[in-house]
Amino acid sequence: MKIIVCMKQVPVKDSLLKIKDDNSWVHEDELNYEINESDHYALETALRLKEAHGGEVVILTMGPERVKEAIKQGLAKGADRALYINNADFTSIDPMTNAKVLAAAISPETPDLVLAGLQTDDNGSGQTGVILAENLGLPHTSIVMEIEKLDNGIKVKRELESGWFQWIELPLPALLTIQSGINQIRYATIKGIMMAKKKEVKELALSDLGLSGADVAAGSTGLDFQKVYVPEKTKQALILEGDPKDVAEQLADKLKNEAKVF
Amino acid sequence: MASSEEPMKSFTKAMFAGGLEQDIVFPYPKMDPDEEENLSMILGSIREFFKDKVDSAEIDRTGEIPAEVLDGLNELGVMGMSIPEEFGGYGFSSTAYNRVFEEVAARDASLGVTVGGHQSIGLKALLLHGTEEQKKRFLPKLASGEWLAGFALTEPGAGSDAAGIQTKAIQDGPDGQYTLNGSKIWITNGGLANFFTVFAKTPVGEDGKENITAFIVTRDMPGFASGREEEKLGIHGSSTTELTFDNVKVPQDYVIGPLGKGFKVAMEVLNSGRLGLAAGCAGGVKRLAAMSAEYAQNRKQFNTAIADFEMIQHKISDMVVDAFVAESMVYLTTGLIDRGDVDYSIESAMCKVFASEAVWRAANEGMQIAGGLGYSKEYPYEQTLRDARINLIFEGTNEVLRAFIALAGMQEHGEYLKKVGKALQSPLSAMGLLTDFAIHRIKGRVATQRLEGISEVLRAELGKFEEYAKDLHLVTERVLGKYRKDIINQEFLLHRIADMAIDLFGMVSVISRVDSLIKEKGQEKVQREIAITKIFCEEAWRRVRRNSRQIDNNIDDLRKEVALGTYEAKGFAVDFVA
Question: Residue A40 belongs to a domain with what CATH number?
Answer without folding.
Answer: 3.40.50.620
